[in-house]
Amino acid sequence: MNIQERLLIFVTRTNWILFAAASILGLLFCPAGFAKGIIFGGLIVTVNFHLLSRTLRKALTPPRLSSHNVILAKYYFRFFVSGLILFILISKDYVEPLGLFVGLSVVVASIMLATLIEVKNLIFKEAI
Asked: Is residue 30 one of the residues assigned to a domain?
């Protein structure tokens, strides 16, 4: 398995693990609005990551390569729907914006964790 596949699998799994951990900790230790923000934000960003991954995998796998216009249209549609959902959540005071920000950071945190682990592996691999 090459490094790209390993990173994608790690980030995909870590997204769900971090989302579950942040949601549980939010429910246990934070006010309800903040916890709902973590849950909704994490769910939005994790589902978007999986949909983008699926779109790219289908579009770039031979024999049926998709046009870049189709990929961009799906991306912007997802972006618009996500923005609309975020607008409704914030404007109707269903969630606290700071909790939403924490939830939306789940994918970024998993990518950073994957990067740190790969850098550590490269450094220690070079040292041996």
From this structure: yes
Residue % of the chain over a pLDDT of 70: 98
DSSP the chain: --HHHHHHHHHHHHHHHHHHHHHHHHHHHS-HHHHHHHHHHHHHHHHHHHHHHHHHHHHTSTT-PPPHHHHHHHHHHHHHHHHHHHHHHHHTTSS-HHHHHHHHTHHHHHHHHHHHHHHHHHHHHHH-
The pLDDT tens digits for 90-116 are 999 999 999 999 999 999 999 999 999
Q: What is the mean pLDDT of residues 45-72?
A: 88
Which residues constitute the domain of residue 112?
Answer: 9-122
Q: How many domains does the chain have?
A: 1
